[in-house]
What we know:
Blueprint: H1 20-29, H2 33-46, E1 50-52, H3 60-84, H4 99-107, H5 114-117, H6 135-144, H7 150-161, H8 173-180, H9 184-187, H10 191-205, H11 218-242, H12 251-277, H13 279-284, H14 287-294, H15 298-309, E2 331-336, E3 339-344, E4 352-354, H16 356-363, H17 369-406, H18 408-412, H19 423-430, H20 434-441, E5 445-448, E6 451-454, E7 462-464, E8 470-472, H21 473-485, H22 495-504, H23 511-520, H24 526-529
Helix pairs in contact: 1-17, 6-7, 7-10, 8-10, 11-12, 12-15, 14-15, 17-19, 17-20, 19-20, 22-23
Amino acid sequence: MALLQPKLNLKVSQRQVLTPGLMQMVSVLALNNLELKEMIDAELVENPVLEEIDESVPMLDEVASRQERHEREDRLEHVEGVAEEPAAPPKDSFNEIDFGSYFQEYLDPGYRTQPEFEESEKPSFENFLSQPTTLTDHLSWQLGTLTLDPALEKAVEFIIGNLDENGYLAASDEELTEAYLQFPEIRDMGKDAAMELVRRGIDLVQQLDPAGVGARDLRECLLIQIAAQQQEFAQVFARQAAEPAEEDPHRSFRAEAEAQLEERRRSMEVAARIVDRHLQLLQKRDMKDLARAAQVTVAEAHAGVEFIRTLDPRPGRLYNREQTRLIEPDVVFVKRGAEWVVSMNEEELPSLRLSQRYRRMLVAEGTDKEVKEYVKERFRSALQLMRNIAQRKSTILRTCEVIVRRQQEFLEVGVEALRPMMIKEVAEEIGVHPSTVSRAVANKYAHTPQGVIELRFFFSEGSNGPEGADTPLLVLKRKVRKLIEDEDPRRPLTDDQLAAMLKAQGIQLTRRTVAKYREDMNIPSTHQRRRRDG
């Protein structure tokens, strides 16, 4: 039996190790203009040897050198004046002002009363900007208008906080109850009492606006909306029933309106029956089967389906909308004469330089050793950042020059002239790794004659046609979508028919490939697209 004992072995191996400089270079390359500006601004605050060049504002070095020059000139004039003893110049009233006593009298805090000297806390300017109302804000505002028991109000707040961005409640009653019992003030209530509060809270949330929030699934969400509209129509019918019909001078108009309301009420009943029992059949769009299963006529099934189309399957999206993302082009593609030119958009990026003041500190004899080491380290960091920014610019420019050279027809004609282009091909042409090109085009945009376009848009695989002409995947998918949009809904095209129609256009694709593109675009199958009216 072998005994376990410690051993010491030496092993020589090669591996790639990213230095801090390389790591920064990789991260800087992946940044767009807005992100790079934020990074530079943060570095300007942290690193004192970095300075931003601003032509309108004199640099600290220039101010210091100018002050030193003026002091030398003043000393020289003083020496010459003593030697020559010229006549005393006329007195200048501006020079006779005692600025020291002025500042002491009017700016010394001791001469101010306490209320005047205390700084008042002013609201931030950001507080005056309008903020979008979220679903939580909207529901909480409605909750504030109700008078509820404190325990029930806390349960409703808890339910609102667990809604997803679509307004759905994904957790079960048991899961919500267990989480609700974690609050110290609820822990002693008991599981049964807590679950009762949770269920009452869910019922109350489902009564708030927008209709459909707090539902567990699509079926319950649609049923809540239908029930809310049915309740509104019931109130309309009740008001009309209370009015004396014999005194109405527009009896025929009233009868027509009542018929329309009755038709609307019937369509809501059919819609509720379809959503409650036959939601799966609704996805197949087979009106005959749907009418047969719901025990209604085909016309009534049509009316019910049209009413369902007016409902919102994601009511929370009304308030949880995505914020508009600010996009600033990183590069500009411009045609000058007969040649396309690529230029970097650097208007908002700060221009950096190294501080002359800190350079003098490194060579000064009286500078402390620790201070010199700190300044040296800051200089290394600043130089590394400036080199990485320059390397980023060079890589992006070289990548975009290849894009412009290969996609000139797209820039002049449009998306139909887009040619397939792979990241690997561009990387080989400029002599870098494909991952470098991938980072260079990531989350970056170009201003082109065809609009502001993401750089990744230009990279797409291609499919060879019978004549050898390549077509990028983006164009292929657009062609498939266009053929499906133009089809007869009663006789939708099969994947084989789509492949045959593309072949007639010079594009060779198999049925399986067409099906894959169709699924990538979330387009239903032929059977699901077929519309049977009766």
